[in-house]
Predict the 3D structure of the following.
Amino acid sequence: MRTYLIRRLLGAIPLLLGISVVSFAFMQAVPGGPDALFARNGRMSDEQLAAIRQNLGLDQPVHVQYLKWLGGIARGDLGLSYVEFRPVREIIAERIPNTIQLVLAAILISLVLALLSGILQALRQYSAFDHLVSFFSFFGLAMPVFWFGLMLQLLFAIKLGWLPSADKVGLDAGFASYAKHLMLPTITLALGTVAGWSRYVRSSMLEVMRQDYVRTARAKGVRESSIISTHMLKNALIPFVTVVTLDLPFYFTGAVVTETVFSWPGMGRLFFDSLNSRDYPVLMGLLVFSAILIVFFNIIADLLYGYLDPRIKYG
């Protein structure tokens, strides 16, 4: 497995380089940039704009800009924000803890609800409970995230007044206040994942239930609870763990809509604000961070699958 891991890590290098080239080329092709950003001022002369371009290195050829940016990435320098004039690394580092809090809460809810509903659906296939949960699963998969978030705000914040509609507070404001601010965005972010994961658990359990070793265990008189926990659930969760691991990076990178609707100061909201202000260094930093997360979790998923399933050998 060590050889396989080294080979995957080495193979990730050209992949990340390719992603960086494509992302940088797209950013260069998008209209706007610092010229349009500073030209909005109206009090800035052409000489001042030229000086800004020179200070930011934007007067150099594109390939030179890319190589300098790539050299900065190798040193951990993601560049300077066009809007805040601060290092991009600092701006992203300030937002990561907020996104982690939201993501961890959403993952916990998704895992608990998906496992419970998926297992019960498989054990009670074609029952009223199965049909009801299936209906809500398809409903959750088809539901637009922004609309669901707005409906939650309308019901629980405006109509009932039970929960705050947006923003975030820290634990210093009290755990109750912190949990109330966290609840609505967490439910919104977890909606689609609960629906998808529960369907996957259900199908995996149904597939395992039809295996010969389950029928053999029942024929030997093994208790049903032991069959479910030892024979069925353990084997059904092997592919589910892989799916969860592959979905984790999209939790970090796919919270743009949720964080924007609830004014949650995380990386998703940062991406949306940077896109509106054409802050390309921040956008590039977020794209690189997202690419690294996706590649990393793909490698972790492969390793976990090989570790959990002894039939798979990595040579």
